[in-house]
Amino acid sequence: MLDLVPFITSHQGISTKDLASQFGITEDELLSDLNSLWMCGDNRFDLIDLQFDSGYVTIRNAQTLNLIRSLSQQEIISILIGLDLIEKNLSAERLDIVGEIAALRLKLGQGTSRILDATPAQDGQIVAVIKKAMVEQKKIHISYFSPTDDEITERDITPLHLSVSDGRDFVTAFCDSASAQRTFRVDRIQSAVLLDAQAAVTAPSTSNQELIKTALIISRNIRRSREMLGSFLTGDGAEVSVSSYNSEWLSRTVISAAGAIEVTESAEIRGRIADIATRTLKEYR
């Protein structure tokens, strides 16, 4: 379509049959492309003017696209990444679109496409299963990675609603394992399978765990340390506090900071960190 405009500009009055033949496409494809070109221009008040109802094509007001151009390497890479993301978010039934994407890759250059691979932040198939479960009011079985416990758990959940926070998707659901309402980050769900079981009776959000508040000092690697502590962190200076339900996660995070983070309050956690460090050092002797 990028080549159509300059070619028509230099071949005013060409027949649709000859024009289709020049580009190796059918007349129906050509007419579809010409109709699309109606929407091209500098702005919505300055669009290309095409006439082809008589079977002969003329074009006016196409100064912005009347020169033959080729895509830059950066433009090609951007398009290939976009095609990769679209393909990986497609359902298994859309083989027609997969074929179109393959054809576009071929036109853009196989050499570049072989070295590119884009992965969506979250699996479109998993989102589709969650939405279907919500509509049909059924349970789903998920494998979920928990960074606080550093493990993958298997759960049966009843999705209640999807939400977005800080650019990430979350699903609030009733979890059979916890017998309570829980919120899961969608990109941490490894797999999701729709079950025949009907949705569980929901319950208010509860937790039997006690919130642990700990005072810390960040002495170096400030940006990395703050990112490690994430949304559990409060405070802007070197002296901060962390609120978490999982002391094991906090202990691992402090140890992995390699001395950049020091626990100043909570003798229990300080003792646990010292014990883990001592046992770890013994493994190297």
TrEMBL record:
PROSITE patterns per UniProt: WYL
PafC HTH domain residues: 1-103
Q: Which residues form the WYL domain?
A: 126-192
Give the protein's recorded name. Answer: Unannotated protein
